[in-house]
Design a protein that fits this description.
single chain; 551 residues; alpha+beta; eight-stranded mixed β-sheet; 21% strand
Length: 551
C-alpha cells in the first residue's frame, strides 16, 4: 500500500508548524491535519503574549542583569521539583532546553526574523530562597508581534513547503485512531468535519461529513493539551492542590480537548505526569469573549494587595507574580474559588499587563508609536476597557463604596469594611517607612532595584488611601485553566515511548501533547516563558528526527 506522505503531523499549532518546517527543510513530504478550520492556524500560540525564556540575552545584559546557564538550571530544577521515576526523560529535556535557551535559541529565532521587546521582565518570581522555585533574574522576553510574531516565521516556512509541493494541509480532519503495519504505526484514521467559516477561536461545528484513512512512514502528534476540557481538568486534578474548582474560566478554546492523548495511549503510548498542570489564579472574565468561558490572565506587578474571599491578606510570599501554584493551592483550601486584588489607579496604570495578543494591540501590531503611547497613558486602553466594562472590576472613589461594590459581585457579602480598612492602613504605614517589616513592600522596593521594573512595571510604594493615587479599584480573580504539564513520554529525539520504555515505532510527539518535551519537562511548575519555547524546541527535535528516520 502506498504512502500518502513521508510524515503526517497531527495538529497545526506552533509545535506542528515547527516540525513541518524542519521536515520541509529536509525535503520530506508532509500532511498536516487539524480538526479546526484554516483560520485557526497556529493554535494557542496565536493568542499568547509571545513570552520566551532566554538566558544571558542581549536584552538582559543591556540592563545589567547577570545570568548564566548554571543559574538558569538551578532555577529550573528548584522549580520543577522532579521526584518520580518517570521524571528521567523530563529532566533530560529540561537540561537540554536550558542549554538551548542559553545557547543558540535566540540567534536561531533572530535569523528567522523574530525580534524582541528590549526589556526582559518577570512572570514568576518565587520567593522561597535561592535554590527554590522561581526565576532568580528576569528572563521573560516578549516577542515583537506577540503570539502571531512567534507563529509567523514557521507558518511562512511551511507555506513555502506548500508552494514547493512538499506540504498539504488537511483542515477539518479530526483524528480518531492510529493503526500499524507489522508493529509500526503508519496509519491515521478519522472523521472529516463540515467546513466552517467561524472566526479564530470560536466554536466550530462538529457535524461529520465523511471519513479518512491516511498512511505515512511516521506520525508526529502535536495536538495540544487539555485546558479547554474542564471535565478532563477536574478528572486529572491533583489532590495536592485541594479540591478541583466547580467553575473555571478558560484560557483556551474548547477544541483544546486532550482527546488525542487518549488515542495515542490506545496505540501504545505512555502518558505520564497527567496530574501536573498549570492554571492561573489571576483570571478575569473577558468583557468581549471569543470562546465560551473566555478568561484573560492579569500579569501583575508586585504592588496590589491580594485578599482571599473574606478579605484576609494572602500570606507571604504569595504576592502578585510570585508563586502561581502555591497561590492556587492556598485558594482552594479556603473554601472559596476566588480572590481579590485591591489597588488604585496609579498601580493599575503601570503594573497591569493582560496576557494575550488581542489585549496588546501595540505590541501585536508592531507599532512603536502605540507602545510609546501606552507608556504615556494614565491607564493603557485595553486595561481601561476592563475597568469600564469588565464584570470583575469595581472602581470607586472611597473605601465604603468599594466594599459595597465588592460584596455586590459575590453570593455572600463577605468583605467587612472595618477589617479591610485595618489591612490597608497597616500596609499603607509600611509604604512611608523606609524600614518596616512588610515583606511585600520590601519585595516592591527590591523589584525597583531592576531598571526594567522601575521604568515600566513597578510603581513606587505609596498609600492606597492617598486620594491623589485614586480612584480605588478591586478586581475579583478566578481560576483560569491553561496548560497540562504532563504528556506523552518521549526521548530526546521526540520518539514516543511505551510504558516499558521502548520507542513506539513510527510515532513522535511535541509541544503540550508531550509535556513540552519528555512527558513533562517543567516538572510540577513552570518558570514561565517556556511554553512557546518548549513547543519550538520539541517541534524542532521531532521534525529533525522524523526527517532522518524516513530518509
Amino acid at each position: 500500500m502506498a504512502y500518502d506522505a513521508d510524515v503526517i503531523v497531527i495538529g497545526a499549532g506552533l509545535a506542528g508548524l515547527v516540525a513541518a518546517a524542519e521536515l520541509v527543510d529536509a525535503g520530506r513530504s508532509v500532511l498536516v491535519l487539524d480538526q479546526e478550520p484554516e483560520q485557526s492556524l497556529g493554535g494557542q500560540a496565536h493568542w499568547s503574549f509571545g513570552g520566551l525564556f532566554f538566558v544571558n540575552s542581549p536584552e538582559q545584559r543591556r540592563l545589567r542583569v547577570r545570568d548564566s546557564r548554571e543559574l538558569a538550571l538551578q532555577d529550573w530544577l528548584g522549580t520543577a521539583g522532579f521526584d518520580r521515576a518517570e521524571d528521567h526523560w523530563p529532566r533530560k529535556w529540561a537540561e537540554a532546553y536550558v542549554d538551548f535557551a542559553a545557547g543558540e535559541k535566540r540567534a536561531w529565532l533572530h535569523r528567522q526574523g523574530m525580534r524582541f521587546f528590549p526589556v526582559a521582565s518577570w512572570a514568576e518570581r518565587g520567593g522561597y530562597g535561592a535554590a527554590g522555585l522561581g526565576n532568580s533574574v528576569p528572563r521573560f522576553h516578549v516577542t515583537w508581534g506577540t503570539g502571531p510574531g512567534v507563529v509567523e516565521p514557521f507558518a511562512r516556512r511551511v507555506r513555502e513547503g506548500v508552494d514547493r509541493g512538499l506540504v498539504e494541509f488537511r483542515f477539518r480532519h479530526r483524528v480518531t485512531g492510529l493503526g500499524n503495519t507489522a508493529g509500526v504505526v503508519d496509519t491515521v484514521t478519522g472523521e472529516v468535519l463540515a467546513p466552517s467559516d467561524i472566526a479564530r477561536g470560536e466554536a466550530s461545528t462538529r457535524r461529520i461529513t465523511g471519513a479518512f484513512e491516511l498512511r505515512a512512514q511516521a506520525v508526529i502528534i502535536t495536538s495540544g493539551g487539555i485546558g479547554g476540557n474542564p471535565d478532563l481538568v477536574r478528572a486529572q486534578w491533583p489532590e495536592r492542590l485541594g479540591r478541583p474548582p466547580r467553575t473555571m474560566l478558560s484560557g483556551v478554546p474548547a477544541h483544546v480537548d486532550g482527546l488525542m492523548l487518549g488515542i495515542a495511549e490506545s496505540a501504545g503510548a505512555h502518558h505520564i505526569n497527567r496530574d501536573r498542570m498549570w492554571h492561573y489564579t489571576e483570571g478575569i472574565e473577558n468583557w468581549n469573549p471569543v470562546w465560551a468561558r473566555h478568561g484573560i490572565r492579569i500579569l501583575p506587578g508586585p504592588s496590589s494587595l491580594w485578599l482571599d474571599a473574606r478579605g484576609r491578606r494572602l500570606p507571604g510570599p504569595l504576592f502578585p507574580g510570585f508563586d502561581t501554584l502555591g497561590t492556587l493551592e492556598h485558594i482552594m483550601r479556603t473554601g472559596y474559588e476566588y480572590t481579590w486584588f485591591v489597588l488604585d489607579q496609579r498601580i493599575i496604570g503601570k503594573e497591569f499587563a493582560l496576557s494575550g495578543s488581542e489585549q496588546n494591540p501595540d505590541l501585536t501590531g508592531k507599532s512603536v508609536r502605540d507602545v510609546i503611547g501606552r507608556a504615556r497613558a494614565e491607564v493603557p486602553g485595553p486595561v481601561k476597557a476592563f475597568m469600564d466594562k469588565g464584570a470583575d472590576f469595581v472602581v470607586e472613589k472611597d473605601l465604603p463604596a468599594l466594599v459595597r461594590g465588592m460584596n455586590a459581585l459575590t453570593e455572600e457579602p463577605l468583605i467587612d469594611e472595618a477589617g479591610l480598612r485595618r489591612e490597608i492602613v497597616a500596609r499603607d504605614r509600611a509604604t512611608v517607612n523606609p524600614f518596616g517589616k512588610d515583606a511585600q513592600i520590601t519585595a516592591v522596593r527590591g523589584a525597583r532595584g531592576y531598571l526594567g521594573d522601575k521604568l515600566i512595571r513597578t510603581v513606587a510604594p505609596h498609600p492606597l488611601l492617598d486620594p491623589a493615587a485614586g480612584p480605588l479599584i478591586a478586581v475579583r480573580l478566578r481560576i483560569l485553566t491553561r496548560k497540562s504539564l504532563g504528556g506523552l513520554e518521549t526521548d530526546l529525539s521526540s520518539r514516543v515511548l511505551t510504558e516499558g520504555g521502548d520507542p513506539l515505532p513510527g510515532v513522535y510527539a511535541a509541544g503540550e501533547a508531550a509535556g513540552f518535551g519528555g512527558g513533562g519537562m517543567h516538572g510540577y511548575r513552570s518558570l514561565e516563558g517556556t511554553f512557546l519555547g518548549g513547543c519550538i524546541f520539541s517541534g524542532r527535535a521531532a521534525g529533525r528526527a522524523a526527517a532522518k528516520a524516513v530518509g
